[in-house]
Amino acid sequence: MAVELNALRDQIDAVDKKILDLLAQRLSLVEQVGEVKSTHGLPIYAPDREAAMLTSRREEAEKIGVPPQLIEDILRRTMRESYASEKDAGFKCLKPELGTVVIVGGQGKLGRLFGKMFTLSGYQVEVIGSDDWEQADDILANAGLVVVTVPIDLTLEVISKLGNLPKNCILCDLTSIKATPLQAMLDIHHGPVVGLHPMFGPDVPSLAKQVIVCCNGRGEEQYQWLLKQFSIWGVSLCDMEAYEHDHGMTFIQALRHFTSFAYGLHLSRENPSIDKLLKLSSPIYRLELAMVGRLFGQDPNLYADIILSSDENIQMIKRFHQCFGEAIKILDDRDKKAFVASFDKVSEWFGEYSLHFLYESQNLLKQANDAIHRE
Predict the structure, then answer these.
(1) Residues 110 and 73 occupy one common structural domain
(2) Is 202:113 a contact under the CB 8 Å cutoff?
(3) Which of 17, 106, 141, 224 is the most exposed, having the fewest neighbouring CB atoms within 10 Å of its CB?
(4) C-alpha distances in angstroms, 355 versus 101, 347, 351, 358, 360?
(5) Axis crossing angle, helix 152-159 with helix 300-307, rounded to the nearest 10
(6) What is the C-alpha separation between 363 and 21, in angstroms, rounded?
(7) pLDDT of the chain along its 375 residues, tens only?
(8) Quick check: is 136 in a domain?
(9) What is the pTM of this model?
(10) What is the CATH number of the domain that holds 198?
(11) What are the φ and ψ backbone dihedral angles of 217, each rounded to 5 degrees?
């Protein structure tokens, strides 16, 4: 049996080596594609091309008895690596006559990411850090674009220092709240203004498929090239009114981060063994625990600023607390009928998204399970 098994394993190893060679060839071709896209100013992410390619590969896989989902998983992972590789070829500069791109707060992680992307696109980038304000007027004198990326609690103070920008300079910010900073920029600068919120962190390997929310302030036609430059980087743009964005963030950021904070706080007080929890975990609980735990591996000031950035956030969290109390009463009453009725009501609110999210989460959980190594 051992001889037979070893012979089969040797064949598998040989096939794996062929797969590695093919992956190397694919990445080499992708690098060439990146160079062509860079020359002609094409986005690194082409959703129609990706969808058509995946559909074709799934059909071909099914014909030869390979599970379609297997080839899709392999290709999606390969494409993620490809997008990261493509950006190394650089990007076409859409506004070579722009002047300097000045990133205020460019020494922070998000500022460094955007500085790198503008540099890869051929723009001259300057940075204003907390110790550079004495030279700020000289740095800003030739600015064609100023990007404010500082902590939320410093944003308005920093914007107030930008009253002497060149007339046609574009002023924008990357803050996770939009209405107040946008109004501050409109008040201090009479040129084009746009509020931006990157819905991703600075550790992303590529901007392909990442979302940037855009809130128009003034001079939309004058900053259209900037949005197109983002698109070349692979970004998906989401136009939205500032107040609508901020309301959505009460759910997407403030409420979610607070519930993770409260759950982590409760776990720390109950003090279970994390090692034992992981050994007992299904993929979904491990993923949930990871999403809570990752919060506490980051800067607490950032999350405090996000949660405390508006009274609307606090009122939303208070309403959640009230709803949580109502759910606790169902438990105190041992009222299964009320639990089922509430469950059905929420299920009805989700509608067809329930089944969609069930399918989507199943794929995520499969990937999470694949990454687990058990002794």
Answers:
(1) no
(2) yes
(3) 17
(4) 45, 10, 8, 5, 9
(5) 70
(6) 28
(7) 788 899 999 999 999 999 999 999 998 888 888 888 888 888 888 889 999 999 999 999 999 999 998 999 889 888 888 887 766 668 999 999 999 999 999 888 999 999 999 999 999 999 999 889 999 999 999 999 999 999 999 999 999 999 999 999 999 999 999 999 999 999 999 999 999 999 998 988 889 999 999 999 999 999 999 999 999 999 999 999 999 999 999 999 999 999 999 999 999 999 999 999 998 988 888 889 999 999 999 999 989 999 999 999 999 999 999 999 999 999 999 999 999 999 999 999 999 999 999 888 887 777 777 766 666
(8) yes
(9) 0.86
(10) 3.40.50.720
(11) -110, -60
| Residue 207 sits in the same domain as residue 250 | no
Distance, CA of 112 to CA of 103 (rounded, Å): 9
My answer on whether 30 and 67 are in the same domain is: yes
Say if residue 163 is in the same domain as residue 69: no
Helix, strand and coil percent figures for the chain, each rounded to 5: 65, 10, 25
Burial class (CB in 10 A: 0-12, 13-18, 19+), 122: middle
Contact at 8 Å (CB) between 187 and 161?
A: no
Give the span between the Cα atoms of 310 and 166, in whole angstroms. Answer: 32
Domain match, 236 and 252 both: no
Q: Is residue 336 included in any domain, yes or no?
A: yes
221 & 274 share domain: no
Let me know if residue 205 belongs to a domain: yes
Per the DSSP assignment, residues forming a β-bridge with 214 are 196, 239
Q: How many domains does the chain have?
A: 3
First to last CA, the chain: 25
List the CATH number of the domain containing 358.
1.10.3660.10
Q: Quick check: helix, strand or coil at residue 311? A: helix
CB 127 within 8 A of CB 145: no
94 occurs within a structural domain: no
Which residues constitute the domain of residue 72?
3-44+51-82
Structural contact between residues 264 and 296, judged by C-beta atoms closer than 8 angstroms: yes
Strand partners, 218: 193
- Contact residues for 279 (Cβ-Cβ < 8 A; gap 6+): 374
Q: At what angle do helices 283-295 and 353-370 cross, to 10 degrees?
A: 90
Judgement on whether residues 142 and 192 belong to the same structural domain of the protein: yes
